[in-house]
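Homework-ish question, so no full write-ups if that breaks the rules, but can someone show me the predicted structure for this set?
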Amino acid sequence: MKKNLKQKIVIIIGVLFVFLYGAFFGFDAPKIGGGQPLLTQLTQHIHLGLDLQGGVHLILRVEVKEAVNTETDNTVARIEQDLKTAKLTYSQVTKPDPAHPEKIRVEGINPTQSSAVQSLLDSKYSNEYDVSSGSDNALTVTMKPNIEKALDDKTVQNTIEVIRDRVDTLGVSEPVIQQYGLGDNQILVELPGISDLDRVKTLIQSTARLEIHAVVGGPYPDEQAALASVGGTLPPDQEMVHGSGSMATGSDADSVYVLQRVAIVAGTDFRSADPGTDSNTGQRTVHFTLTNEAGDKFWDYTSANVGHSMAVVLGGRVKEVANIESAIRDSGEIRGSFSQDEVAVLSKMLRTGALPATLNYLEDRTVGASLGTDSIKQGVTAAVVGVLLVMVFMLIYYRGSGINADLALFLNLVILLGFMGFSGATLTLPGIAGVILTIGMGVDSNVLIFERIREEVRAGKAPSAAVDQGFAHAWTTIVDTHVTTIVSALILIIVGNGPVRGFAVTLTFGLLANLFTAVYVSRVIFDTHVNNLKPGELVSI
Amino acid sequence: MEFFRSVNVDWLGKKWYFLAFSLIFSVSGIVSMAAHWSHPVGGVHSPVPLGVDFRGGTEVQVKFAQPPDISKIRSAIEAEGIRDAKIQNYNGSASNEVLISLPEQSNESSLDTGRQMVVNSLREHYANPFADSDVKVDVVGPTVGRQLEVKAIEATLLSLAGMLVYLWFRFQLIYGIAAVVACFHDTLITVGAFALLDSFGFKGMEISLTVIAAILTLVGYSMNDTIVVFDRIRENLRLSRRESLPDVVNRSINQTLSRTVLTSGLTFLTVLSLFVFGGPVLRGFSFALVVGILIGTYSSIAIAAPMLVAWQQWRAGSGRAVALPAAKRSRV
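A: Not a homework solution, just the prediction itself:
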């Protein structure tokens, strides 16, 4: 018996140390003596939710229909091409309903060729499309639902990738960017520690089209001067673009350029881009590489236009005007009046490409860091006061056994923190609610046991028998209450979202810990106490 | 120290009082909810005052460096063209915090304009500085609010169903039903209390996502409480088969009363300290728990246990097997 008890005490102390370690270090190697106070260690491994530490929370909807639209636009062009090649007559290939971009109509088919058209379309497109013949010499080509769904998913996934790459430039420690389960095509973005929502939104949503245009003339001080230079009216293939004059004249004044409307290099032509600094001037630069196809085009253009100038246009403004000194194939450098942020963002965007579809914000929340800290301070104060009150009461009401309950409660909280540290789960305000229910049920388990032991003592049982019986009876109840609550918490984890899940996670951890502390630990302490009783002495309860 | 050594109260004899009490609170809750429904806030019908999480809309909470002047804030915002904003002090006047609420934007593409206008107008027209880190903004569009509502209700109902199944397996179906009905009763009265407070003019208690967490907590708590009583009933039914069910139920409630009062009292203490010290973020949350713990404790004694007896009497009346089977298993 005694030896058995010692073994159990060793187990308990072992568990205590394991979870203390988890709370402070998680799975990392300990860095004691690294100059970090223990409290910092603790807060580093217990992830706080945005409501507690501040940050930006966004829910976006990806307008996936746009991707479907682009895809069917391509298909329309291919169908027209195919029909022409096969010498089949038709009047037009259209998409009749803008709300249903997945539907294509081939109209005005020669009735004698209708089966030929149908079999041609079937043979080429039946993997992705359903082809059905309609009335008045028309065929309907509809994207298959599973293909459309796959395209939707791909669009959302690509958008997530693009957003992730862009957000990386912010240097957020643990961003969450994932598909949001509640609705279709929604993305959840959570950035702890960021409070400048506008910057985040610009970054995420920026389409940052970078293009290189041929310069017709400029810089001119204003639009009138620019117009005058082209004889009063702008030809349809040219456009006026504003930009700062600094790179040409050294001044910051706004100036106007006349450019060729069609770009030599468009945003999708870039293969890679890296930020850099010019070693001579210290100017910020972006070094880029073009795709092979665009490289050939660029080579043709630059070799034919040596001595002319090109303008780099970013987001509708001229950023740089460069003289073509020699033919360039597929790599070059853009130099201009960029800020460090701009260079980083620009190269990111050129590399990751544009967003595949428009984004709409469904929800955005920002918690200023200091307001988050306020609410955690108040919450923690309240919880600590509550727990202390409970502990004091238990000591008064159950005397010696109160120490037992308080130890179990303390150990329970340590294990809970350790769980959080090991699992990397996030503690939110609703999570604190879970902790409160855990404390409530932890106290309840002890009260159940103690009341039962008192009953048994009153019935005249000897200390060890009373403790035995008390635990045996209370155990059934404790299992029932805990399993019921864990069952419901697991359901909440599975079907619930954000806050509801946060509640359920801490509750599940807490109750599991409680089964150990309230029953096992409490029992060991009682047995130790009973073993040390002198004959005739009663349990302190 | 001991509060209740041997109590002998005839709880079941008071069942009509209990029923009256529960009915008064449920019905007044339902009436307030109906009243709230018929007075839509910003065109949205809801039975309870909803927080921005579910209602949708824009809430900007700003902590100023100096004590804020509501009327100056209003004119600053109106200078930017925002008319129907609700502006109120938040977290007590010493905190310099102000909460500015705008009604829901039905158009999702312009969801964010309200926030920008509020922040910009305060920066431009109101000489009371605040840092970015002192601003909390919630902008919730109509789609997300609705989805959250549906999801939260779905999750709660499913978890209740899960508990019902477990209790069915561990006890009997009627125990499960009685416990779930009691939880439902508690939820109704607690949610009703939000509507009730609102009808009596105490505005600002709203059902938000954290309140949902509180309601889940109270469901867990009430269930815990009910199971403790049921467990005793099961045990006593096994030990003394000759005693009548009402006597067994009464005795079980009395035997567990000491524990019930202690646990609820202690949990109540924790929750009360949340209500007092937790600040405005936790106000609605801790209010739901304060009400919920009282009601949850009450319902185990006054709703769940009498339901078992009522069911047995109904079975007896309809000529079926009389005895309430103790349980399927005796020990774990």
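Now go work out the reasoning yourself. Hint: Confidence is low (pLDDT under 50) at residues 246-250 of chain A.
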